[in-house]
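Loading example: each entry is read as two labelled lines plus one structure line.
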Amino acid sequence: MSARRIEGAGLVDRAVELRFTFDGKPYKGYEGDTVASALLAAGVRILGRSFKYHRPRSVWGAWSDDPNAIVDIALNGTRFPNCQATTTYLSDGMEVRSVNAWPNANRDVKSVLNLASRFLPAGFYYKMFMWPDWHLFEPTIRKMAGIGTLGADVIEGYDATILHETCDLLVVGAGATGLAAARAAAEAGQAVLLVDDHSSVGGRLLSSLDPIDGQSPADWIDEHLRAIQSAGGRVLTRTTAIGVYDHHAVSLVEDRGLGTAPIVRRLRPSRMILATGAIDRPVTFVNNDRPGIMSLDGAAELLGRYRVLVGQEIAVLSNRPDCQQVVADLQAAGAKVQVLDPNQATAKAIGTRHVKALKSGGRVVPCDTVLASAGLTPAIHLWRHAGGKLDWDEARQAFLPGWGPDWVSVVGAANGVYDLELSLMTARAAGLGECIADRGTYTLPPLWPSVSAKGRQWLDFQHDVTVKDIVLAKQENMVSVEHLKRYTTLGMAGDQGKTSNMPALATMAELQGKPIPEVGTTTFRPPYTPIPLESYTSAHKGRAVAPLKRLALEGEHRKLNAAMGEYGGWLRPAWYGASNEEEEAVARECNTARNAAAIMDGSALGAIEVIGPDARAFVNFVYYNTMSTLKPGKIRYGFMLTEAGRVFDDGVMACIDDTRFVISCSSAHADAVMAHLENWRQDSFDPSRVHIHDATQNWSTVTIAGPKALEIVKDLGVLAEADFDDFPHMSLKHGSFNGVLARIARVSFTGDTSYEISVRNDHVEALWQAALEIGHPLGAGPVGTEALVVLRAEKGYILIGKDTDGETMPHDLGFTVPRIKKKAAFVGDRSLHTETANRVDRKNFVGLEVEDGGGLLPIGAHIVGSENGEPLSLGYVTSSHMSPTLGRPIALALLSNGANELGQIVTTWHMGEERKARVASPCALDLDGERIHA
Amino acid sequence: MQRFPCPFCGPRDEREFHFAGEADKDRPDTTQDISDEAWADYLFNCKNSCGPTREIWVHFPCQEYFIMERDTVTMSVAGTTSVRKDLT
């Protein structure tokens, strides 16, 4: 005989029937049911299988303390793996499947593993599958282990909403104690927030018929709820306080049902009262994992809330002095109940697929259900998160809150106060900020696992950790609780050790001959119950965190049918043409640049202004290159280093006047460079004498580069004709365009004569259009980022982060002079003279010419040598392109001692393929730099 | 989730801050001779004190660097002061 639904009010709404299936069979439940209560009411007892031995599993607890009933649920076409059947409220149309069982929980073929249990002790996998290679066994073991199956579908927009809230007092747990505390505080004028993880408030009162303060439990709950709300307090149900973090931070997660992302509330209450109750502790006896053996409080909760009577012939095995109340309620509901003495020799359950009898003290008691409770374990998880300590209480055989933070109080059963009257009194006092230390008297006779009993006694029901596994762990010296847990997988079930940890600690204590408090507990970590991972991220991800940077000219690029791509956070034109025509477009644009002129959008390049009387000293300090001698109107190329001497960024810097410099940095690096500069500005300079400002987004730049660049720029009229007489490469002039200031810089990233014209964003469209119009008859045209990358590679110009790695120093790139000559201090200076920096085998920046007639060298291919007959990596290819101008592949690389290897033939290796290449200068085009001055 | 008092913006969530280094660690004068050991000590060695510490942090939204005195065991923050001489 199994469980059934009985008459009576409860919390389920019998007017609303919900249909669902379990392992393919149709069932029905009611609004307010959990998946577990509906299945039990429908007479289903086996809800799953255990992890290791595939033994049948029913429910043990009725809420988050249940380690057994894990199920996969499909709802509206989406599958949700590993739901706790006891905490998942039933919805119409759910398709529930048991996990870790095939073909279903009722008939699981892998249950034969149970017969082999003696060969599967704790640590079995670690010991057995070492030789010859774990990876040989891993796929099969992973398939046999594991619980739910992760579906491939993703729910779009499944993002938790994170709310930041405030309150004076947070009360966790809305049982009688929590309600009393919240009411007292709310009526005293405090802003109170009361939360409970169930859908209804009332806690254990909902499982009780006894009058409270002369009222029925339902009336008492209702009156308190109204009083709290009319005093301005707030009450949230289905909301779990999952963790307490530093500086009073508490996270609340509101469950909104499967498929709807939770609401996460973060708050820092001034005070917090924990009225989280206590958790029933299993009795450890032989075959105590059989379906039909469950917790006393779980049975009471199923009866009170869902009107599910768990059995007809019930044996109660408990040392709790207060178990009589539950016994009376079960009898009133029509069950036959026998109370057995738990202190007899270890009991044994009889029956395989469900319990049929309990053998205790020489008697065999026929029964269909055993309610086993070895006492209460106060739920002190949040107290431990908050930094509170625990003291062992011998009378209650439990850890109770000891010393702790003064903003947190623990009341009621969570504090070991099991007397309702006293609980209410201390809770009301706590609500008013007062503390009553009295816990009353309560004595629980010790009832812990016996290590000498024959037969297997379960501690962690889901992971099949038995008393014998603890004995084995002790034998193998895994005596610390943290080792014990990891060695045996104890406490890793869905309930996270809420039921299994205390009996296991007691077992280890007995084995070591120590008192329980000396064995200690494992660390309590958030979250208190499993929550969706999305609760942590919410919408704080992707573009919401790092929005795409948009160019003022984006519309113009799109008009020219640009293929747009993301480069360092910016949406930039990759090439002009269809998205599948990259190769042709890049080749065409390279030819345009070399034969006429490239017209490019250079706005994404970082533009950081350094201003103030100490600006010159500052830039000289943050650059590797000497910047102190840079004259107004001049531009210099340089590197910024980290203090460890590594190349951090490169770019040109222009001197506007003695107190004003403009640093141009890699597009992707602007934010990091700003942070780097701020750091040094505030560390080593007087911030009132030097100021830095990121002006990247204030200017837009049109770059015109190529043999026809001068002609186009002259025609644009941004400078007077005479200005061009004295405007060499690496200098800067101010002119105007459409009557607004234009900054014209002669710098080049293509190796050709080049002008960068920067104007205010609102004038760049006209500038761009004018440049294209003038350039068109000359053969000039728009050139995108991909072609630019090729053009710069032809010249051997470095892309930091692509052609350099975390070890690259400036002298590896051929820039050796400042290292030797620069007298003033600069960031990273001393690091350039260490043993590492002086090594001759440092990786130098070189070019590679393909020598074997093949195509492009693969990027990342290693340049291989050998040492004592073993192959050795000497470096690797960093950039590789087909050069339309040269009509051959070009490549750049970092190569050990490469500067002294020019002309040598090297071998590259990639995915088993060997290639031959000749080491060359990084600059493959116009080595003398004639084009740049043309 | 800690809350730090920026000397300029007041108490803010820890996610707005970044650790910048231990306080009272001056950059050696690199125009003078410095031994490899002394430089390595400056670059890499930290006290990592268990208990009260003095550290430099930066508050990203206002970009100001400041000294924070806090306890790495209790996580309590004793206070923050600007590194800017004109404000201290």
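The longest strand of chain A covers residues 870-883.
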